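Appendix B, record 7
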Amino acid sequence: MAEGQSPTPNGISMQPGERSTPPIITVVGATATGKSDLALDLAGRLGGEIINTDSMQFYRGMDIGTAKLPVEERRGIAHHLIDVLDVTEEANVQDFQARARTAIADIRGRGLRPILVGGSGLYVRAAVDHMEFPGTDPEVRARLEAEAARDRWGLHRKLRELDPKAAAKITVNDQRRIARALEVIELTGRPFSAQLPDYQEIEPTIHIGLSMDRPVLHQRIATRVELMWDQGWVDEVRCLLDAGLAEGKTASRAIGYAQIQRHLTGELTAAEAKEETAIRTRQFARRQDTWFRRDPRINWIDGSAADAEQNLMHALDLLAES
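Structure tokens (predicted):
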């Protein structure tokens, strides 16, 4: 450490009154809006490395259906927190938080810029905001998840009684989050909504969001689903089933993967599986947009023109102004 510098709580040295390192960058938004391309462009221009915040890209072998960039398309830029779980494991935001912050410190330590990219809003916030996550009790969780499977409406009403704020943000169809919210309430005696505090970052961060006109996004989603099938998505699912996909609580329910499993059992035709995948993806994109729109810190870029250079120039302007 140079003379006159002092460490921050994160171990980053700075001159008194000065910002020692440029802010973290997050690139967020709904699926299929072009986040990966923008993050790569920013990393190449600014000397950065990418930290994945898409919870489905944590899984080894889930490549085509998660739009995971092949290594040869990553332009030699290091990507962190991709392929860190087997499909039989359950993604855990508390574990992710620790891994993400370790990755941020590692990238900083090598003089590079951490760029977080993905559409899993809670994971983005876990990485960059002051957030604490209560532990879990497998027996309590299993009991509540079983109850949610039997009567999600009844369990949602219970959540509404105990924590109206959380119930307003969790749809009745999101059985896992209903169960998790009630688990936290039971274990801590505190509202689940208390676990999502105001937007307070652990260190300076610039948030960039990509948006698209809905008709443009819907067409991109439809095209992407067809392309993924052409690329061998069904065969990917077959291989993952051999690796235990059906037993995975998180991975097996991923959009597209669930529909292809039903196709392979004869429950859905190929056309029906594709259509249901596109519909579920559109619904998911709306939920993502709703989540991110609540965050007042996000600087939005309209990517409807799908012009990568234009998006990059706009993002660089935003960074220059911050």
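Remarks on this record: The first helix runs from residue 35 to 46. The CA atoms of residues 130 and 198 lie 9 Å apart.
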